[in-house]
Amino acid sequence: MTSPSIPTDGESVLHLFFSVGPLADAAEIRAAVSSAEADGYQVVPVSVLGHKADLGFMVLGEDQWRLRRLQTELTAAGLELVDSYVSLTEISEYAKGVPDEMKQARLHPQLPPEGKPAFCFYPMSKRRNVDQNWFTLPYDERHSLMMEHGKSGRTFAGRILQVITGSTGIDDFEWGVTLFAQHPDDLKEVVYTMRYDEASAVYAEFGAFITGMTGTLDEVLESLQLGA
């Protein structure tokens, strides 16, 4: 038995994005997902729009070995992995004083949220340019900028659920941002609005955006003609 690889606080998070190969087997995909869920892991299926992928899974749970096993089982089921992201749930240094209930919601989010099928994932980092170095700003200034940024986000309460996971030292960017929305235009509006905040407009770098719809596994597989 391997020793568990688990975070001290919170959960491990793995975003997996696949194309559907000619050998994709719906029964094996279902078996892999069901097994992970039986072990207490949350698996959010996504039908992806556009050329970047066909199918995605956001997986949350403690042990990274179990995430690796699910990844192996899904590729063995004939899915071709085209992109991925590794991160951890976390409490931001700017949110240390929030109530325990909010901390637990960030460390252990319950996904997917009901009534929010529109999905978007993107990674981001803070700039380290000579004249735009987030990490040379005093803490109080960074905190003020993030409070402004958070205030913009709260205007979308009820329309958007934002899950920010940390990936510094784990993947290419510093955070992964997963958005669940009532409508696709909610995704567009929240990102557009928050990009005007100084914390984003001056200091943020974004990776590729992957967009789609969450649903039951059967709904997602049927959208890919893998319902049998």
Give the key terms:
eight-stranded antiparallel barrel, 32% helix, 228 residues, 11 strands, two-stranded antiparallel sheet, alpha+beta, 7 helices
What does this structure look like?
This protein is of the alpha+beta class and 228 residues long. Helices cover 32% and strands 30% of the residues. It has helices at 26-38, 64-76, 100-107, 139-154, 184-194, 198-201, 217-223; strands spanning 12-20, 42-48, 55-61, 79-89, 118-126, 128-129, 132-133, 160-166, 175-181, 204-206, 210-214. It has an 8-stranded antiparallel β-barrel, surrounded by 4 helices. The protein has a two-stranded antiparallel ribbon with strand order 6-7. The two termini are 35 Å apart.
Q: What would the average pLDDT be, to the nearest integer?
A: 93
Rg: 18 Å
Q: How would you spell out the order of helices and strands? A: EHEEHEHEEEHEEHHEEH
> Which class do the helix and strand fractions yield?
alpha+beta
Strand order of the largest sheet: 1-3-2-11-5-9-8-4
Query: How much helix is in the residues?
Result: 25-40%
Beginning-to-end CA distance, first to last residue: 35 Å
Low-confidence stretches: none
Shape: globular
Strand content: 25-35%
- Please report the total strand number as a whole number: 11
The helix count comes to: 7
Mind summarizing the main beta sheet? Answer: 8 strands, antiparallel, barrel
